[in-house]
């Protein structure tokens, strides 16, 4: 019997700190652990006792790379609780700011974190020596996403302008106009990005995933909709806890999310959205997907880089749509008054669905908060990928196998810092 | 022979990754920076690693575990110049809210099996553990300031950052004071400049994400807030956010906490 262990002590090019351990026995994967040694930061605990209006600023700090996702799920959950509907231009502006985050996050992942795996570099900076034009295009494209965040939010990391009920200040129509020009360039650059990543060599591996995403009748999912899966799930965000559970086990680093009643691991994020909402992409995004050979559904996790590129085209199109139709509202926010209750929301962070639940009292003080970040939701699925997929590569020499394992994790764009539930791990080096 | 380029390392402790991400968000300068230095260790950006000593270490995040305490000493030993970036690294960050609470209670709120969790009762700044050559404030840091600090290091000069208040920046920008004109509580008078007076420019008061400025008079500002109707709970909370453990903010929040308990 031969037994070998593939270990990566500090997993590079992911957000936060993680490690990986895969044990192979006679060429089959015996166990796979994606370990996270991010120390706990206790957000859910210290949200208790805060006033609800502080939520967007506090939850943004969970993650520097997708602060908008936290702000959006937080404000939507609270508005659900307070019985407030944010509509018209304010609702559109929220889609716009989310487009900014999708663009910067997807492009960072594509160019700096994931493409180097396919082209054989340690990172984007090293890749720039041979692929200077591509990296420059990526950086400029990412910058357009960040410019949306800067204009609407004040800055790209932890924007200051989001509040429960809307924004502190709504932009004037003419402030948005220069963005439109940049977005037209960005849309072209996103198209070239899609064509570029389509030339990479993809391992031919597919899995029968349970995809979970939001579904809205008229739009590609961002902020609102029912939670659905390709295996029959169709619930409101308020029913989340009845259908999903998080478990805390000694041998694992993290709370793992599963579907209850044996539903098992599931995948959220770009591939889930793409497979369940393809029809709602913009015409150009759909056309490009067909042109680069992606088809209407994709079950190969390595091709998620192509899906991200297609979603980037969509985000540019959607941002342009919002800017072209925008009329400045009379007031930048809908006034909100505290009342006791419980509120829920899920939104689509770039890397997957993010669920929030808050309970507040009559004075608006938070009594309880629950936050389930995308990485927590994808963690079990990621480990299943390692077990299912890596087994097929077990003949590779050690270094290449290790590289393949890392790449498999990076398919997910895991965001470890924001995984508020992750634990410090004692790694078993036995 | 070409002179060896200075070698950079970027380290992470408890944090949201936002401050080190600021480096990757310098889209216009990134390749120039990467041309002037050798990236020796920066796991968020590259899997390559050069072992040994680093000329410049940028440290993000706060110390929250026993292992962190050991690790920061090792980082110091291996760094010629050590610069901390962000509120986590310079004041303990938002995770320092545990310093005012019972961490065991926090653990039991979040985790089903508290016995699996190993964490210190406090979250502390890097400078409480090792000597630090320069501290860059902000949650997150301002990337313009980051580029300046890295350039200053390369040029052997002092960074150009100021320690005055957000108020001064508002005046320079020509902002109308949100406290005077709109009766919004604003921490600008006691907060360190660096953001370019962002919040007042977006019609809201400053919430102090750059931490205390030099010689702040927080008790006086609290008096103004109280006059605007803020109660002692509110006063306690306003100083307890992203720089809750920075001394002037900590002292002021504790004063109101004590008052609140007296009733
Ligand atoms: S200071 Fe703020 S932005 Fe920087 S790492 Fe800490 S939480 Fe993130
Ligand atoms: S105004 Fe205050 S809270 Fe707002 S960004 Fe500046 S320092 Fe941070």
Largest inter-chain contact set: A-B, 67 and 63 residues
Q: What fraction of residues of chain B sit in β-strands?
A: 5-15%
Overall shape of chain B: globular
CATH topology of the largest domain in chain B: Rossmann fold
Q: Biggest β-sheet of chain A, characterized?
A: 3 strands, antiparallel
CATH superfamily descriptor of the largest domain in chain B: NADH:ubiquinone oxidoreductase-like, 20kDa subunit
Profile the largest sheet of chain B. 5 strands, parallel
In DSSP terms (H or I, runs of 4 or more residues), the helix count of chain A works out at: 13
Structural class of chain A: alpha+beta
Secondary structural class of chain B: alpha/beta
Strand share of the residues of chain A? 15-25%
Could you tell me which ligands this complex binds, including any ions or cofactors?
Answer: iron/sulfur cluster
Model description:
The complex is a heterodimer of chains A (430) and B (263). Chain A is 43% helix and 17% strand. Chain A has 13 helices and 13 strands. Chain A has helices at 43-47, 55-60, 67-82, 88-119, 124-128, 132-153, 173-197, 240-243, 270-277, 283-291, 304-325, 374-390, 398-410, and strands at 3-8, 18-25, 28-36, 162-163, 166-167, 212-215, 226-229, 234-235, 244-248, 255-259, 341-349, 352-360, 366-372. Chain A has a 3-stranded antiparallel β-sheet with strand order 1-2-3, covered by helices on one side. A 3-stranded antiparallel β-sheet of chain A has the order 6-7-8, covered by helices on one side. A 3-stranded antiparallel β-sheet of chain A has the order 11-12-13. In chain A, a hairpin with a 2-residue loop joins strand 11 (341-349) and strand 12 (352-360). In chain A, helix 7 (173-197) packs antiparallel against helix 11 (304-325), helix 10 (283-291) runs antiparallel to helix 11 (304-325) and helix 12 (374-390) packs antiparallel against helix 13 (398-410). Chain A is globular and about 65 Å long. By secondary structure, chain B is an alpha/beta fold. Chain B folds into 2 domains: 7-155, 3-Layer(aba) Sandwich (Rossmann fold), CATH 3.40.50; 166-262, no CATH class. At the A-B interface, helix 1, helix 4, helix 5 and helix 6 of A face helix 1, helix 2, helix 5 and helix 9 of B. Bound molecules: iron/sulfur cluster (2 copies). One iron/sulfur cluster sits between chains B (15-16, 18-19, 60, 86-88, 93-94, 139-140) and A (61, 64, 157-158). Chain A: Belongs to the [NiFe]/[NiFeSe] hydrogenase large subunit family. Chain A: InterPro entries: Ni-dep_hyd_lsu (IPR001501), Ni-dep_hyd_lsu_Ni_BS (IPR018194), NiFe-Hase_large (IPR029014).
